[in-house]
């Protein structure tokens, strides 16, 4: 098993499958009266978040606590970071405190890679800039496999703001490793030139959502990240929704077995309508629940031991 999870590219097919299989075992705990395991008792997990987060931070905290680890939640706001302390000095502080694992979310791409050089414990990337978010890809893959029974050969459309999406990058890397076929869909301004070839030679690009829907097993809608945009990438929210939003009419173009995913948080009414988000085809709530199981599996295998 790897020591760090900094990128979905760190995972080969065997390791990724081991994590997904372990997540399935962790998910079985959710039905028990006592949901905790003693596996990581005495271990310390630090959640080091330089960006706001709800799902990811709470999910990692729940995952560590269900494995009986001691959890320290570190927020940049209200800490020495707000006084100008560098990431390296913060890392050395955590190292001195004996952190066994550091889960980091940071606005700078590459921060988890730098952190791994400064601490002895394991580093888990919980999102770095517009680079990657590997545990989100793992929970998405787990959700697809749970719903559809397989990953090999699945046709997955990832739709929307690919340019700023760390979720898209990690999903392309992980899902193609596991045999899925990916099509990136969005306006030309939000799909970087040559991104498909850079991430995976098998990945396709389309600018026409309606044309790809009938062939897809999975449609993953991405949030339009207006907070990361300094320029106008499309004429208006209304125009974006008209061309690339998933509504009931578009959902009916999907095969009957196809599912709809979204990493959250959603812009309801923009990239996805409430009727689609709340439909039986939607896995959005499942993804949140599966996130705890997937992150339990990651922490267990990084810190606890063997399958």
UniProtKB/TrEMBL annotation:
<feature type="binding site">
    <location>
        <position position="166"/>
    </location>
    <ligand>
        <name>L-aspartate</name>
    </ligand>
</feature>
<protein>
    <recommendedName>
        <fullName>Aspartate carbamoyltransferase</fullName>
        <ecNumber>2.1.3.2</ecNumber>
    </recommendedName>
</protein>
<feature type="binding site">
    <location>
        <position position="105"/>
    </location>
    <ligand>
        <name>carbamoyl phosphate</name>
    </ligand>
</feature>
<feature type="binding site">
    <location>
        <position position="55"/>
    </location>
    <ligand>
        <name>carbamoyl phosphate</name>
    </ligand>
</feature>
<dbReference type="InterPro" id="IPR006132">
    <property type="entry name" value="Asp/Orn_carbamoyltranf_P-bd"/>
</dbReference>
<comment type="similarity">
    <text>Belongs to the aspartate/ornithine carbamoyltransferase superfamily. ATCase family.</text>
</comment>
<keyword id="KW-0665">Pyrimidine biosynthesis</keyword>
<dbReference type="GO" id="GO:0004070">
    <property type="term" value="F:aspartate carbamoyltransferase activity"/>
</dbReference>
<feature type="domain" description="Aspartate/ornithine carbamoyltransferase carbamoyl-P binding">
    <location>
        <begin position="3"/>
        <end position="145"/>
    </location>
</feature>
<feature type="binding site">
    <location>
        <position position="56"/>
    </location>
    <ligand>
        <name>carbamoyl phosphate</name>
    </ligand>
</feature>
<feature type="binding site">
    <location>
        <position position="133"/>
    </location>
    <ligand>
        <name>carbamoyl phosphate</name>
    </ligand>
</feature>
<feature type="binding site">
    <location>
        <position position="223"/>
    </location>
    <ligand>
        <name>L-aspartate</name>
    </ligand>
</feature>
<feature type="binding site">
    <location>
        <position position="83"/>
    </location>
    <ligand>
        <name>L-aspartate</name>
    </ligand>
</feature>
<dbReference type="InterPro" id="IPR036901">
    <property type="entry name" value="Asp/Orn_carbamoylTrfase_sf"/>
</dbReference>
<feature type="domain" description="Aspartate/ornithine carbamoyltransferase Asp/Orn-binding">
    <location>
        <begin position="152"/>
        <end position="302"/>
    </location>
</feature>
<feature type="binding site">
    <location>
        <position position="265"/>
    </location>
    <ligand>
        <name>carbamoyl phosphate</name>
    </ligand>
</feature>
<dbReference type="InterPro" id="IPR006131">
    <property type="entry name" value="Asp_carbamoyltransf_Asp/Orn-bd"/>
</dbReference>
<comment type="function">
    <text>Catalyzes the condensation of carbamoyl phosphate and aspartate to form carbamoyl aspartate and inorganic phosphate, the committed step in the de novo pyrimidine nucleotide biosynthesis pathway.</text>
</comment>
<dbReference type="InterPro" id="IPR006130">
    <property type="entry name" value="Asp/Orn_carbamoylTrfase"/>
</dbReference>
<keyword id="KW-0808">Transferase</keyword>
<feature type="binding site">
    <location>
        <position position="264"/>
    </location>
    <ligand>
        <name>carbamoyl phosphate</name>
    </ligand>
</feature>
<dbReference type="InterPro" id="IPR002082">
    <property type="entry name" value="Asp_carbamoyltransf"/>
</dbReference>
<dbReference type="Pfam" id="PF00185">
    <property type="entry name" value="OTCace"/>
</dbReference>
<dbReference type="Pfam" id="PF02729">
    <property type="entry name" value="OTCace_N"/>
</dbReference>
<comment type="subunit">
    <text>Heterododecamer (2C3:3R2) of six catalytic PyrB chains organized as two trimers (C3), and six regulatory PyrI chains organized as three dimers (R2).</text>
</comment>
<comment type="pathway">
    <text>Pyrimidine metabolism; UMP biosynthesis via de novo pathway; (S)-dihydroorotate from bicarbonate: step 2/3.</text>
</comment>
<feature type="binding site">
    <location>
        <position position="136"/>
    </location>
    <ligand>
        <name>carbamoyl phosphate</name>
    </ligand>
</feature>
